[in-house]
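Have a close read of the entry that follows and walk me through the local backbone shapes. See right below:
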Amino acid sequence: MKEIMDTKAFKRSLHHSENYYRRGFGHQAEVSTQFDSEYKSNFIQQIRDNNNTLEQGDVTIRLAEAFGFCWGVERAVAIAYEARKHFPTERVWITNEIIHNPSVNQYLRDMQIEFIPAEGIEKKDFSVVESGDVVILPAFGASVQEMKLLNDKGCKIVDTTCPWVSKVWNTVEKHKKGEYTSIIHGKYKHEETLATSSFAGKYLVVLNLEEAEYVSNYILNGGNREEFLAKFGQAYSDGFDPDRDLEQIGIANQTTMLKSETEQIGKLFERTMMKKYGPIELNQHFQSFNTICDATQERQDAMLELVKEKLDLMVVVGGFNSSNTSHLQGIGLDNRIPSYHIDTVERILPENRIEYRQLNGEHAIKENWLPDGKIVVGVSSGASTPDKVVEDVVVKILELKNATTLV
């Protein structure tokens, strides 16, 4: 059973602790120089300044209007860098990947920031952490149980949780206060959703509109309780009962989910509760707050604009476990544009082959992925992807098509 605690009171107490940090440490100037050299790209900025377009030989590159590092990610990485400088002799740990990007996480390892040993997302070995150690919470956040464990150990906690994620936590706290069940649109084993659910009272995680429609039908027509629980496996709170706990519901989401689907799910449940309880009682049975991240929305909207253009193919760059990156790839595929999700330039292989992640999570290799003749390539990247990585990919494409080094 999940430990029952007043999560709001604990969070308030933690925020007033002398061992808790969620702002920088005064090393912004040093960190900024290092950050810019490792992650930013003058080449990509030049393309941005040229109406997001580059033409070289047979290749036209079209960048999405918005892509790459968001403010929350940049903030999290910068605070982690500052923490290492501020605590030069202490052991510094991080509870999970700071963000979903392999190169960024490797930089942290190179700075002697250690990662908590883990078998999967939910089985972490905190026995390695000792009192006085510094522990960084990543941009996705950490569960309230992990925070309490680290606080009880006497660790210095550096919290880089994105404010948009914290906003969702506040939303499920409101649901809990009103005894509403939080229906969370997300991936139930994703770090962010695990953290969010730890702040909720009763909750159910739905992956997509199809699962939401199943729940909606159950609310309106009833069904087989055992079948319901088996369908959602571990994606609900301890003791959750669909016959009891779907009378009052509130909507929340993992911030990196597809914006349009989150909106559809919210409207579906609003209609469902309206149909069951009527307009007068709707507010007693349904709550909805806007918890869609601005940066996620901007990148998805930019992708929707980009796919309107005549593109031969799309390359989306981002960590393979990055939810927001996979949704960008999905937008390309939905518009019948060959779309390849890669995490590093090394996925572009010799002999005109590319290794990429499919939407189902499996890897595939595409032969002759760059067509002959003149081509237009759309390029975007997830919110955890440095422009330097995007530069590597763009340059590689240009080299392969034009057989020359352009940067």
Observations:
- The chain has three domains: 40-70+295-402, 71-162, 169-292.
- The longest helix spans residues 259-285.
- The chain has 14 helices and 17 strands.
